[in-house]
Amino acid sequence: MKRLRALAIDDEAGSIKALEWELKLFSDQVDLVGSTQDPQQGLLLLKELDPDLLFLDIEMPGMNGFDLLEAAGPLRAQVIFTTAYDKFAVRAFEVSALDYLLKPVDEEELGRVMRKVQEGRRHERFQQQLEVLMGELRQHDPGLRTIVVPTTDSLEFISVDDISRFEADSNYTRIHLAAGKPLLIAKTLKHVQGLVEGMGFFRAHNSHLVNVRFIKRMLRGDPACLVMQDGTTVPVSRGRKGDLLERF
Question: Residue 106 in 3-state DSSP?
Fold first, then answer.
């Protein structure tokens, strides 16, 4: 059995010590080759150590676990989230099928995760699983206003408050940001609409999903058009004009 090399990133020293203690029970399977309480240092250790496993805390000041994954880019390591979240988050992890450990880590739960790891279950669907996780967490935490979108070489964690609109491009979607270049992702606009459900977006047209916070004015006409804050005009389908006005 291959011994795996693990890295732990957690802002709580006690949590790292507890994990280190429990991992000694699995010393024939895994070596903790590095740990840090500083997410920025964690990024450097990820590159330097190239671990097989990453035990990653979610709630960390300055840079949470999702932010760290975005900054790190594609990983070889299998990610195991460590969290003190409540029962709702536990359900979210179970629905997404991502590996997680509740704090404080205990032997039984660590054993469960290690068995999955040693079964060789890889994370080809990691991007999709993260999307499911974020969607589930948002249902119980309305303050979580971030979506996860895969690009060709990274996972992008984007605050919905920075998105002015989405535009369909065949089976792709172009994300227009308030600042910066647009992003093209391999998801349909219908899929994206599900990700931002209840977060202030309106389907103005079959090809356009707009953030209502960025609407500057609506021009009468046939069809009517929305003028966005950046000056872009977006058509409004005839049957959706009334739905938009009802929102205000």
Answer: coil
